[in-house]
Amino acid sequence: MGAERTLSRRRRAVPWVVVGLWLAALVVLGPLAGKFSDVQQNRAVDYLPDSADSTQVARIQDRLPGGESTDLVLVYHRDGGLTAEDKRTAGEQVAEIDGAHELANEPRGIPSEDGSTLMYPVSSTEPGQDEEARNAFVDGVREIAEGGGGLSVEVGGPGALNTDMGKVFETIDGTLLFATLGVVTVLLVLIYRSPFLWVVPLAVAGVAAALAMAAAYGLHELFDVTITGQSGGIMTVLVLGAGTDYALLLVSRYREELRRHERPYDAMRTALRGCGPAILASSGTVAAGLLCLLAADLNSSSGMGPVGMVGVLAALVAMTTLLPAVLVLLGRRVFWPLIPAFGSEPKARRSLFAAMGTSAARRPAAVLTGGALLLGALALGTLNLSGDLKQEDSFTDRPESITAMSTLAEEYPERSSRPVTVMAPADRADAVLAQARTTTGVADATAGRTGGDWTEISVFPTAAPESAGETRTIVALRDALHDDGAHVGGPSAQQLDLADSEARDRKVIVPLVLAAVFVILVALLRSLVAPLLLLAAVVAVWGAALGIGGLVFEPLFGFQGTDPGLGLLSFVFLVALGVDYGIFLMHRMREESLNGAEPEAAALTALRTTGGVIASAGIVLAATFAVLTTLPLVPLVELGFVIAVGVLLDTFLVRTYLVTTASVLLRRRMWWPGRLSRTPEPVRPEGQERQPEPV
């Protein structure tokens, strides 16, 4: 009796120790989590690989006298033509800006052919590389440059665009966190039908988010990992979405075990043993898929890998340690009013997923063929995806810098308002300048600052920014100036380098992700056929989700392009996250087979017992990614839409019908070449006991 009491006291102490350790960790890591947003980098050059030509230009500009310049374009416009008073106002305002901010260039007004617009390019090195100083400079210029009485004044150019983009990213973390928490809260209340239970996984998810932010900040400080507003936002979604999924699976299994065990501690221990391998493998596939992004050429993509990985691992650690401890301490009453009593049987009710599985099993070949054809037909929508998204089309609500760009493109068709920046060796500057002026598609070129053996040259193409004509001009400049050791950069060249790097990354990372996920699935399921089936299913879902995007992005949403990174990022997330639900289903199917169930019975039992929790998890995960569609940036809207649609397709079509029917058709061949493919007898893993009978 004494030994039993000692063991009982130890068991009661374990949850308190776990909670205490987490509280101590929060005290230590809380200040680091608060610094997470301070290290985010959102300049276009921060997304580029170090080897890109435009990156070299940006690095050299930082070393020139005054450092990096902030380039703006002031646009004065009046329908019907500018008046003498308008031109005087423009001159006075530009002079005031020059006096307040010590402009690096001598402002010179360039009138449009019809006299309705006056363009003043201005540049300042005063802010340097400090983001707050650059934003303050742009805001200061906007305060001075004001119109009225029919005169419109817009501040555009690369500097203004970066400021507008930065302000959007500043709001993403808070908006995304609270919106996601709100969505998850509503869904958990509906799923658990309890006024208390939903608080526990949500609070634990919040703790996991703080841990992830602190860990990501540490990665940046220790290894200089690039963190952008995009990767930070996606990490938040991953922590809350994946963490809630793990909580749903654990709580569902814990509820089952409370009917078989008198003590909550014993029920939780059995629940962790039962679903722990599936949760571990699930998080492992997501983490492995994200780590493959380290092979990306783009800094933004390679940084997203470890940042997303720490988010998933933080969710895993919190949901398998803190959540069980809190649930055990709260006991059965946390499930009120639907408390699972010891020795009771769950209320018998018709299972939707049992009905769906039974209907699919009647004609499995027809269901499988029909589902595959449907996914293939939806994938054809990818042919409707438009070209690469331009910077001017990247906002759902057009800021001032974008409207200024549109005005300039309309009023100055013969000359681009956004120069291409060429960095030439100082001893070759005159030759590079002469060569640039004679390059096809160039309207003008002027020499600027010189320092550190480099000279800055601004080249103005005749074509509009990010048009096919401007792209041809940039390529021609690089071909013509390469032998002189010059580099060609600037905003448009950066977008071109981004698209080229994305294309290269897709070829490298897609095979890596498939290989990594396949290895984990083979280790978990001890089969070659089942992993191949799951991978084929998630790839089909990815193609169908992208196809649906192609059918709605331009016709329904009015988007004027597709983000170059959409294909790669949606593939990584849909493959890694989609395999999660396959793991939950297949792991339970394998468990039933090990206990002696026939293949068809094992498949239907697995669907009946996990279908509800998989559906709940899929809805939660889709909803969290759907929150991205509320943000004012088209790339994040597109990514959130494709992933949300893909998760729903995976949850309600692929797992429910296609994987189940394929399992029924393949029977024991599903587990080839493992032992389950060769013997009909129960083969329990060593050390695994039968489920205990109620006492």
What would you note in describing this structure?
By secondary structure, this protein is of the alpha+beta class. It has 20 helices and 8 strands. The protein has helices at residues 2-34, 44-47, 53-63, 84-101, 131-144, 158-192, 199-223, 229-258, 264-291, 299-330, 352-362, 364-379, 400-411, 429-437, 468-481, 491-525, 529-552, 566-594, 599-626, 634-666, and strands at 70-77, 110-111, 117-124, 152-156, 420-425, 442-451, 454-461, 487-489. β2 (110-111) and β3 (117-124) form a beta hairpin. α11 packs across α20 (634-666). It is elongated. 52% of the residues are buried. The model is unreliable at 681-695 (pLDDT under 50).
Sum this structure up briefly:
About 65% of the residues lie in helices and about 5% in strands. The chain contains 20 helices and eight strands. Helix 6 (about 160-190) runs parallel beside helix 8 and helix 16 (about 490-525) packs antiparallel against helix 17 (about 530-550).
Main attributes of the structure:
695 residues; alpha+beta; four-stranded antiparallel β-sheet; 63% helix; elongated; disordered C terminus
Order of helices and strands: HHHEHEEHEHHHHHHHHEHEEHEHHHHH
Low-confidence stretches: 681-695
The whole-number mean of residue pLDDT values reads 86
Count of beta strands: 8
Radius of gyration: 30 Å
- SS summary, helix count: 20
Helix content: 55-70%
Briefly note the structural class of the backbone: alpha+beta
- Percentage of residues in strands: 5-15%
Strand order in the sheet with the most strands: 2-3-1-4
* Approximate shape: elongated
Q: Can you summarize the main beta sheet?
A: 4 strands, antiparallel
End-to-end span in angstroms?
Answer: 20 Å
